[in-house]
Structures are given as C-alpha cells and as structure tokens.
Amino acid sequence: MKITFDQFNRQKNLHEQRKLYAHCFPESHLSAEESEAHYQWQFASFPHLHQGSASYEYAAFDNDEMVGYYAALPYRYNIEGVLCTCGMVCDVMTHPQKRGQGIFKQLGMFATEDLKRAQLHFTSGYPIRKDVMPGHLSVGWKVGFKLPMFVSFLASRAMLQKIHLSLVAPFADALLIFFNALLSFYWRKKIPFYDVESREASETSLQSLLPFIALWEKEQNFFLIKDFEFLRWRLGKKNAHYKIFFLQKSDDIVGAALVRYTNFYGIPAAVILDCMVLRDHLQASPRMFSEIKKAAFQDRCEAVVVMMSGHWGKRYQLRKAGFLRSPYVFQFISKKLNYSMEEKNFLDEKNWHLMWIDSDRF
Description:
Blueprint (H helix, E strand, L loop, with lengths): L2 E5 L2 H15 L11 H9 L11 E7 L2 E15 L2 E13 L8 H15 L4 E4 L7 H5 L4 E12 L3 H6 L6 H22 L4 E6 L2 H15 L4 E3 L3 H7 L6 E9 L2 E13 L2 E11 L7 H14 L4 E5 L2 H6 L8 E13 L6 H4 L16
Parallel strand pairs: 4-5, 11-12
Antiparallel strand pairs: 1-2, 2-3, 3-4, 3-8, 5-13, 6-12, 6-13, 7-9, 9-10, 10-11
Helix pairs in contact: 6-9
C-alpha cells in the first residue's frame, strides 16, 4: 500500500469524494448533504475568499483510489481587535476499510502545514466522536473546552417511538405541554417589557439584523464575523428552512436567534444555530427561548436543541428556560498556525461565543 497526499481536484475527483462521503457518513444516505449540489454550496460558494480560495481541500490516495479527505473553510474572526482567518475544518474522513493505518494523522499534518503556508492564522474543529481525537492531537491540535448540547422537549412521540414506548406518548405530551405553557406564562409576566418577533430568513431580515450584530460584537472578546455575505451563505443551504427571532425592547433589537427547522436524528426539531443577546438584556434570554419553543411547537417540532459552552449556558439561563444538558458533548479544538497568543487565553471558553454557526452543521 502506497498512500499519497495532494490538494483535492474537484473537477477530477468530485465523484470519488461523494462516494467516500457516502461510505463514511451512512446516516446521510439520500439526504441533501450527500448531493453534489450541497458540496458546491459548501466548498465552492463561500463568499469570503482567502488568497483567492473559497475553501482548502486535500485528499489521500491508495494508488488511484481516494481513501481520505480533509477540508477547511476560511472563516473570519475578530480576536481582540485583530482580523484573523481560521481554517474551520470539516468533512474529515477516512475510508472505513483503511482506518487504523495512520492515514488520518498523515493527511491532517499535510493539510495543516499547507494551511500554515497559505497564511491562515489557526484552525477550528468541533468533534463529538472520541475516536478522532488522537489523530488531531498527534499533529498539534489543542483541546479547548466542552460544548454540550442542551435540549428542551416540546413533545415526545418521535423520541418514545424510537424506544418502543409510543403508548406513553399522549400522557408525556400532556405533561410537556403543561410545563412549557406554564414556563412561557411565567417569563411573560417576569419580563413584561420585551417582545419577540419571528421572521423567515431572507435578505431583508438579515439586513435588519446587521445593526444589532454590530452592537453585540463590541461586547465580545473573540467573535465570528457575521456580515451580510456570510449570513446569506450560511443560511443558504438547499432545502433548509431557517427563521430569525428578534428580541426587542421599545422597538430596539437587543437579542436574536438563528433557527433551523430540521429532522434531528429522527426527531422533528428547531435547532438554534446562534443566539446573541446584549449584555444589559441577558435577563430576558429565557423570554426569547420561550417564544422560540412556542413557535417550534406550532410548527410541529418536538424539541429545541442548542450547542454552547457551559459558560454561555449559564449566562443565557438555559436551565431556567426549560433546557436540559444532554450527555452528547462536542469539543472545541484548535491548532495555531500563524498566530501567537498564550494558550491559556486563546482556549479560555469565556473569551469565545461558539455555537453551531461557527461550524458547518445545520
């Protein structure tokens, strides 16, 4: 076996890459993510080119067979006032029959060395599977902090059907409806001077969001740059339904959430990609979450799901909004390439505001 590594040629090898994706992610079979159209959106249409590139892609070959793939998107961050380009690593894969042979490690080293030569500042990744961690750590990645998933259940039918307890669903649903209605009533009374408005994600609603984001950025140490072009691309997945929720006080936008309605591992759910609330209005966060849950239930979702650090989970009062911390935990990991900052500060969860919008998920 002779393994070679090279930059990925999409004109020549895209069909092979899609076959490898199907082997590595069988759960995506027949989904939009498996299509070539999804690939073109993800890797060929990113709006902020870095040195002329919309993405950085690499492949490993066993003779002429593609057995590995590694990609990064040039996400832009403001790190304490410094504009940085981050290689957001995604769709990393090794053919199931070739795992355990060091291909992932070698491809990771090849790719990150090339990203360094391309003058990217650092990489980011959000693994949930423990088996990929040794390969990342062996080529210089560092573990930052945990990003648990938090879930608020609105109904139980799909979840209980998965464990063959459908007969219990009517009783469980009655309890969940009562609990969430009571919670919603409580927060409307406790936080009476705020309103929540939902709009379909569109160019008009995204433009309405930008002045608020500019205010929110001033309160952050490190943040993903969410300009109009990025948001239009990020919420531009084919066959995806997004909504934007605006938390308002006296007609001023003081908070916002980007939400996708999707099938979440067999459960119809509202997935919160991002939420932002100005510091002086954090006490109203549960009010916004209550309205997201109410709208999701009306749209027949059975859960609302969000990923964030424990630090932000406390600041957004997720527990008081009816969310439970799930046992499923992502990790923020990074490798510094052309950026120097003390590791302790760079990987401090209090400096970051990371959610699914910082990845390519959903």
